[in-house]
Amino acid sequence: MDFAPSPRAADLTERTRAFIRDVVEPVEGEYLRDLAEQRRTGDPWRPLPVIEELKAEARARGLWNLWLPKEHAGEYAARFGTDGGEGLTNVDYAPIAEATGGSHLAPLVMNCNAPDTGNMEVLLRYGTDEQKAQWLEPLLAGEIRSAFTMTEPDVASSDATNMAATAVVHGDEVVVNGRKWWSTGVGHPDCRIAVFMGLRDTPENLEADPGIDRHHRHTMVLVPLDSPGVKIERLLPTMGMYDEPIGHGEVSFTDVRVPVGNILSGPGEAFAIAQGRLGPGRIHHCMRLIGLAEMALERACRRGLDRVAFGKPLANLGGNRERIADARIAIEQARLLVLHAAWKLDVGGPLNALSEVSQIKVAVPRMALEVIDFAMQIHGGGGLSDDHPLAGAWTNARALRLADGPDEVHQGVVARLELGKYGAKR
Amino acid sequence: MDFAPSPRAADLTERTRAFIRDVVEPVEGEYLRDLAEQRRTGDPWRPLPVIEELKAEARARGLWNLWLPKEHAGEYAARFGTDGGEGLTNVDYAPIAEATGGSHLAPLVMNCNAPDTGNMEVLLRYGTDEQKAQWLEPLLAGEIRSAFTMTEPDVASSDATNMAATAVVHGDEVVVNGRKWWSTGVGHPDCRIAVFMGLRDTPENLEADPGIDRHHRHTMVLVPLDSPGVKIERLLPTMGMYDEPIGHGEVSFTDVRVPVGNILSGPGEAFAIAQGRLGPGRIHHCMRLIGLAEMALERACRRGLDRVAFGKPLANLGGNRERIADARIAIEQARLLVLHAAWKLDVGGPLNALSEVSQIKVAVPRMALEVIDFAMQIHGGGGLSDDHPLAGAWTNARALRLADGPDEVHQGVVARLELGKYGAKR
Amino acid sequence: MDFAPSPRAADLTERTRAFIRDVVEPVEGEYLRDLAEQRRTGDPWRPLPVIEELKAEARARGLWNLWLPKEHAGEYAARFGTDGGEGLTNVDYAPIAEATGGSHLAPLVMNCNAPDTGNMEVLLRYGTDEQKAQWLEPLLAGEIRSAFTMTEPDVASSDATNMAATAVVHGDEVVVNGRKWWSTGVGHPDCRIAVFMGLRDTPENLEADPGIDRHHRHTMVLVPLDSPGVKIERLLPTMGMYDEPIGHGEVSFTDVRVPVGNILSGPGEAFAIAQGRLGPGRIHHCMRLIGLAEMALERACRRGLDRVAFGKPLANLGGNRERIADARIAIEQARLLVLHAAWKLDVGGPLNALSEVSQIKVAVPRMALEVIDFAMQIHGGGGLSDDHPLAGAWTNARALRLADGPDEVHQGVVARLELGKYGAKR
Amino acid sequence: MDFAPSPRAADLTERTRAFIRDVVEPVEGEYLRDLAEQRRTGDPWRPLPVIEELKAEARARGLWNLWLPKEHAGEYAARFGTDGGEGLTNVDYAPIAEATGGSHLAPLVMNCNAPDTGNMEVLLRYGTDEQKAQWLEPLLAGEIRSAFTMTEPDVASSDATNMAATAVVHGDEVVVNGRKWWSTGVGHPDCRIAVFMGLRDTPENLEADPGIDRHHRHTMVLVPLDSPGVKIERLLPTMGMYDEPIGHGEVSFTDVRVPVGNILSGPGEAFAIAQGRLGPGRIHHCMRLIGLAEMALERACRRGLDRVAFGKPLANLGGNRERIADARIAIEQARLLVLHAAWKLDVGGPLNALSEVSQIKVAVPRMALEVIDFAMQIHGGGGLSDDHPLAGAWTNARALRLADGPDEVHQGVVARLELGKYGAKR
């Protein structure tokens, strides 16, 4: 159980921190103000030019595509990526993800943000050479962006068997129909491709075919966003925030036709792909949340020492020190739990870390919400405004109690595996 | 300890519910969509016409200015207001406030929304005849709106003695300087007047004058918003939401001069006024939050019965029923606590209800946050969007953990009074 | 919704407080020391003589059997009981129960303790004249004590249909078999009679008889403890405490034969009786817990002001004042909730207060545990010892999360009724 | 950050588990019943013979004194102890401590129980050759036991500067006076020696001597329990439990005279010794609590699968699976946090792990209480009795929120170090 990053990863972490401290943070305040201004007066979905400048700088510093997994990166690590020519383990990447998590722009400008990393990983693992050439390479180069379309507005998507969208092979085409939402990334003008998940046939036909078990009923297919029949119906706010220029959209697919060559892995393989995709993705999300919580705690401490009320720094009033201590304890525990899950994933793959990945998915957003909420409270009214990055951080963490499966589903997984030790079938 | 409303109040409550159910709710969805559209394409601060229509209907139904307090309403109840010609007690008004709380528009269109009710109450109790004629009457008529400017961005305003703004008498004028924020209401184009609170003299002069104790150092003064030197610097988002067309602003006051006749009660009387102003205001806020929590619980139950996952209605999965039960219990306890505070206020005035008013200020937002958060969670991703009024409700409740004094200050009041029973001086 | 006690009840509450303050509390410390000594050196189940002295004094002061319910007390109120000749409503009795709850001995010496009150109420409502003469009168006189035997060790008794014990009529006898535990009261040497609940026939016969629905399968019968076949197997500790001289026992019943005249109400009527028995009993338990929590908070405050660490009274360290405030808020809310349930019971009977009684059963022990745990903590190690009545209070409150139905069952009732508002069948 | 135990430690852990599973657990139930019987009928402080048998077996299996620390064990490891001839690191010992924690007898019979381990460590590190020969060797041999006397009944001992007991050198003697309580171990008939902590001089003299800073005012001295003037006043219950045959006592010291050679390290050195003593001790306590929580969770799962109510295993009712998941998550986090603290201690000593040791002291008992309380609840009434080891486990965990410093003091340490990062002096 060794959670220490390799020397190379430790060096990359340090360099990531330096990049964020020296390059990103100094422009982040102005970026956010410009974005707010653009919201009032222009098109908030037009990425501000500073983003491309920061991307160039990240690439120049060798801090580009650091998420590339050791196991699957292959030649792409050297061509597009991580300094040193090979990918990183989950344990190695974890502190880097944490370092980026406290910054609004860092994940994006280092080409390390969701959902693109997950989509690129899918292409790395399951893509054909053609798929890789057409979509993976420009994604790795940061030239285009992608979306992941799975959740649907009309059903409880926590139960994947509720899914109603279809991706049915007709001859050499796949016909795609359905309505998806919370499709992260579709707001960005560079977003060109969606990984779409749907039933391989109509529900009636599937019911009638006992040969297809419920884990082989779904297909993943690459759908270019400019395909006829694809319509971004609207962009959705999360607690009032749109997360421009990435955004989360509601997208309809009406008789969209793409070549069968766009199918990932094969018809009915979506579950297997999703399983593999989500493990590392959840590690990344959780480590970024830990970075966010660290940012919030640092701000809470600084505010607590700077502001004075009733003759004392706020930190010395009432239970504030206890809350600071509890925040520190909660962050440490959460980080160790994520490192543990990362290590389990590294040493034994997703099936070895089923409970652990669900554990962090439950524990880390909860922890982050608690810490950030305290930081908001100690900042007074300002903590709820956009003068501080706390309200945005809270919203981010809150969304992760639902994204990639609600808490309750992950608690169910953990409980099932726990009870399984004593003979429970499920 | 009788919490039953009078028959007249029970009738008004019923009529309020009917008005909301039959008139307000049917247009609220469209209102919110139009407002969202206006945000994207126009000026979100321009009130939509339906508001005036609803105001007229509320007035026609005798559901106008129901907040008017029995004790202080005097002739104004008959002239502007509550059906029946006199004001209501806090216990009587409480269920009406609750009924309005679940609706986005009801408080506004019934002329029962903060901060106007608090400002009108101050004018009722402390206003001169001139002040009443000039400001109170158009406010009661719903022709203009008002703001309350107390909190400051540069200090911990939870400690009122930190206040730095000044309202100094020079001859027959008051010179007003300072910067305020979270000035609710300044976004509305009809907002004409601010109740401003500031030091009666420079901090240095006050320090040098031992004759003025710290509870007589502040003055409240009426400042028309079109006075030279008043500038609305910006409107502030709360968790990403601007609460149009009311809004919360940051306002600077630079050498603003108003007649001494605009002072409320007298120089140095601000604390006494604030004390009286805040008791009923907190009752109103808390009862509206209870209405909000009831709305959230109803939606959670309906969603829990309608949506199906893993073969069952969501309500029957995992701990959802326990959470529904806990929400019901929490709401009941919160309502009873507010009624108790209202009753204490009615029978003995603000000094009789110091602890009770602080108790509800701590307990009710906490409860509402818990209930609404559960409702968001059971709605899945949609719960965080603006498809449901839950994210807005959460934000509203969260802000009330800070507005009118943060939790920690109110806990301090409750603890001081508790320890005082055993001889603690403070 | 009027929670004010009648003037007579208010007077009885005052007199109860005076009795406890002037008579009971002065001897309670020595009583507990003597009991501890008797535990080490003698028979802890022998009631100490002071109990009879206090009973006599309570009776002399007219503070005897105050629990007698207005609705059912009839002639017995005048003959055995409450000063003034009639019983009290639940709202009237609530503050008296609270006053007794903070004292170890008061409920016992005022003949107001569980399970005797519940058993006496059953006899009042369902007893024949013979049953009343034989058992109710000596119980009301405080000459004998009683037990209630329902829970069984070998099944999950939270589901009453799991019950395995039987009480089968054979000719003019009832044959009683089974094993019960948590039979409160059986430790007392004066305990003479058990209210026993069992299946009216063997499970097989009941299964075979579709005419008997599951709410008419159980019978309640009076079983004298000296009947052949009744054996107190052992007395059970609760968190290490035996609660002498009352005690909670495991009792086996082997072919015990009692006359059919001992059946209460009739064969198969146990559910109906239990329903009525438990409503008021839960009010009493909960109000006593509130008294216990008030006692704990008072001790926490006094300790917080008296003890000094790091140069300050403990109350002024860290979050202690916040915890004191939260305790005050929690107690107020809990008391109001119980009064609300009592009022609902008074105005509409048990069916009118199903949710409310379950609400308090969940909320009040939780609250009490929180408050008492804080009081233990602020007392340091001593708080866990028997130098203070806190460890005993905690244990008492903890047991009430299970006694009379675990939290989870009561949450289920509240949720069922809540969801029923929206059409859920169950 | 490597938390993996050495191969030798992993082997010892396995052998410990086998010893407990095969030897200790099979006799534990009977042991507890015999102890309960002895409580009723004899002297509960007389250790039952099985303890010596188990000690012999533990020694024979090389599972004796495994706590001996690598750094300080020296020759004693080979002579008295850990299989292999040298001590273990904290990381190595952690899983062994966890394995023993779920068993009532294992720590005692493996000579690994508090307070003896802490006292032996003090002797190892600070003892003279004479002190070691006289006290350390028989302790290591398991022939005698020891106590640690620090906390005092009359002051808030959370602030060590409140201590009033004295240990003053007069010529070649130390005169010891004072009253201590929660002196763990004094109940055991083999307890021969107390490590006593007291002021090196009268408070007045110390006040008058500015040369002695507040961290050099206390002395630790070895006081044989048979010294004239030592009196065990009483044994204290914790939540009703006496923890026989170890026990926690109140002990008075009246003009007790011991040779100066009994001073540990030197006059005024007590703080330095205590600092070193408590780090590993807290690791041990916390790891044992994790073992206790694992035991409770296993029992909760088994019970949840075995018992049926409302037609389902309890585990499938309501929120029970969520609670099982949360328990698993909480245990994992707690274990990782303790391993982290152990690792920090191993790589940098106590000063390197100040915050981490305080973190676990706060987090682990909280976690254990939550898990055990759930296990009690799912066991119904039996969970509170002594039919299951849960009530004892809860009490054990509750005591550790106070023993070795209350939560609040440790939260203070964590917060001080956290705020120190941003310049706070203290």
From TrEMBL, chains A, B, C, D:
Q: Which keywords fit this entry according to its UniProt record?
A: FAD, Flavoprotein, Oxidoreductase
Q: Which InterPro entries match?
A: Acyl-CoA_dehydrogenase (IPR050741), Acyl-CoA_Oxase/DH_mid-dom (IPR006091), Acyl-CoA_Oxase/DH_mid-dom_sf (IPR046373), AcylCo_DH-like_C (IPR036250), AcylCo_DH/oxidase_C (IPR009075), AcylCoA_DH/ox_N (IPR013786), AcylCoA_DH/ox_N_sf (IPR037069), AcylCoA_DH/oxidase_NM_dom_sf (IPR009100)
Citing just one GO molecular function, the answer is:
medium-chain fatty acyl-CoA dehydrogenase activity
Per the record, the coiled-coil ranges are none
The record's annotation in Pfam families points to:
Acyl-CoA_dh_1, Acyl-CoA_dh_M, Acyl-CoA_dh_N
A GO biological process this protein is involved in?
fatty acid beta-oxidation using acyl-CoA dehydrogenase
Domain (Acyl-CoA dehydrogenase/oxidase N-terminal): residue spans on this chain: 13-143
Identify the GO cellular component terms for this protein.
cytoplasm
Specify the enzyme's EC class, one word: oxidoreductase
Annotated Acyl-CoA dehydrogenase/oxidase C-terminal domain residues: 271-416
Q: What residue stretches are annotated with the Acyl-CoA oxidase/dehydrogenase middle domain?
A: 147-256
Entry EC no(s): 1.3.8.7
Q: Which cofactor does it need?
A: FAD
Q: Subunit details for this protein?
A: Homodimer.
Family membership: Belongs to the acyl-CoA dehydrogenase family.
**Official protein name in the record:** Acyl-CoA dehydrogenase
Lineage, broadest ranks: Bacteria, Bacillati, Actinomycetota, Actinomycetes, Propionibacteriales
